[in-house]
């Protein structure tokens, strides 16, 4: 294929996939101009990573739930509950900080299994089960904390979401370790993309022109290197970014290169066909909610570490942020469509918009209005693409 035809497909046939990246770039440019460049300052970029990491963690699990044709309204309450369990053990019971982390993860898994049982084996719709879970886990949070806030956590616990790896390899005015991580990230991405392209060529599948492929790699490399350069000139590599990167890579592999991932897409795409193909639908749905519980536990530990305490009202509206990130990132309301990378970009869109409006001094009510409109437009765009594809047939 030629570069011209590839570009045409990018803005026509592949607009559903590429549109979110184009919109993300435009939003960054817009808020950079409106904030006089403050949005892209090293300190603010670090703050975005620290403040919105929990949304991205939740979005990783939510995209799998949505692709399978479900929804989870309980994750905000579960974040609060797992953080409360951790706080009681570490702050009240004076147990080691890592015990609190493991307890948050374990409680998240148990709660996910509870909801997965009702959805997968009893057959109650996930909307109802997780709505009940939202109320149940919030009530358990109040009981666990005794309607009071607990703080502070020990310094080791706070480092999970607020710590940095800085000065490990030195550097003059910047952190060399952070830059090296950025270079490794670029090399890993380029190798993965080249390997994927070679595999598609081997099986005689359509690929973009070599010129567009190289351009894409150069642009991604420039953006990633610039991002790590900004981090290196701020406070170094955030520990939570390492956690997030490991999770993103893991879930990208799970959803694209494993049998379990293919089964999730099969269930969301055509449930009857999945059953006829031998997919154990109940088992897959059960593990989807266990996974969501695990990620809610991780988000609970990260958020409690970031806020240096546990509050009864923590996690409010987190589920809507995660759901919005998935739909803005290209997930379909009917299931079967959605990618981890899209959900992450959707979460970053929400993060940049929220941060940009905060820097501009926009009041909270206006921020909620803007987020609601963006979500509505994203779903409308999804419906438009489906209708256009249907008419093309």
Main beta sheet: 2 strands, antiparallel
Determine the structural class based on helices, strands and strand pairing.
mainly alpha
Taking pLDDT < 50 over at least 5 consecutive residues as the criterion, the unreliable ranges are: none
**On the 0-100 scale, what is the average pLDDT?**
88
Note the total helix count: 16
Q: What's the architecture of the largest domain in CATH terms?
A: Orthogonal Bundle
Portion in beta strands:
under 5%
CATH fold assignment of the largest domain: ABC transporter involved in vitamin B12 uptake, BtuC
In total, the number of domains comes to 2
CATH class of the largest domain: Mainly Alpha
How far apart lie the N and C ends? Answer: 23 Å
Q: What sort of overall outline do the alpha carbons produce when their principal axes are compared?
A: globular
Helix content: over 70%
Would you mind describing this structure in some detail?
A two-stranded antiparallel sheet has the order 1-2. The protein has 393 residues and is mostly helical. Helix content is 76%, strand content 1%. The chain is globular. It has two domains: 25-166 and 237-386, ABC transporter involved in vitamin B12 uptake, BtuC (Orthogonal Bundle), CATH 1.10.3470; 167-234.
């Amino acid at each position: 294929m030629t570069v011209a035809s590839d570009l045409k497909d990018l803005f026509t046939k592949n607009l559903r996939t590429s549109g979110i990246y184009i919109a993300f770039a435009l939003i960054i440019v817009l808020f950079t101009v409106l904030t006089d460049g403050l949005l892209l300052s090293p300190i603010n970029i670090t703050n975005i990573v620290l403040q919105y990491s929990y949304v991205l963690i939740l979005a990783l699990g939510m995209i799998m739930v949505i692709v399978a044709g479900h929804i989870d309204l309980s994750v905000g309450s579960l974040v609060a509950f797992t953080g409360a369990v951790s706080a009681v053990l570490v702050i009240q019971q004076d147990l080691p900080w890592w015990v609190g982390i493991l307890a948050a993860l374990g409680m998240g898994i148990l709660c996910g299994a509870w909801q997965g049982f009702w959805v997968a084996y009893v057959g109650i719709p996930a909307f109802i089960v997780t709505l009940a879970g939202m109320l149940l886990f919030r009530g358990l949070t109040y009981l666990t904390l005794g309607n009071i806030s607990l703080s502070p956590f020990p310094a080791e616990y706070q480092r999970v979401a607020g710590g940095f790896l800085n000065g490990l390899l030195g550097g003059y005015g910047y952190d060399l370790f952070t830059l090296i991580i950025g270079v490794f990230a670029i090399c890993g991405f380029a190798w993965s993309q080249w390997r994927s392209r070679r595999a598609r060529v081997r099986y005689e599948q359509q690929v973009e022109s070599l010129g567009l492929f190289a351009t894409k790699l150069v642009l991604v490399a420039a953006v990633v290197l610039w991002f790590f350069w900004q981090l290196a000139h701020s406070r170094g590599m955030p520990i939570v970014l390492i956690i997030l990167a490991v999770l993103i890579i893991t879930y990208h592999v799970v959803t694209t290169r494993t049998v379990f991932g293919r089964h999730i897409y099969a269930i969301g795409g055509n449930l009857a066909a999945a059953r006829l193909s031998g997919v154990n639908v109940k088992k897959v749905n059960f593990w989807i909610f266990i996974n969501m519980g695990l990620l809610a536990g991780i988000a609970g530990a990260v958020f409690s570490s970031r806020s240096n305490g546990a509050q009864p009202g923590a996690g409010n509206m987190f589920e809507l942020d995660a759901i919005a990130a998935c739909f803005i990132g290209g997930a379909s309301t009917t299931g079967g469509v959605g990618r981890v990378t899209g959900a992450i970009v959707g979460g970053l869109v929400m993060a940049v918009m929220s941060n940009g409006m905060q820097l501009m001094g926009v009041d909270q009510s206006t921020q909620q209005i803007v987020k609601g409109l963006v979500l509505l437009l994203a779903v409308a765009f999804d419906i438009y693409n489906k209708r256009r594809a249907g008419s093309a047939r």
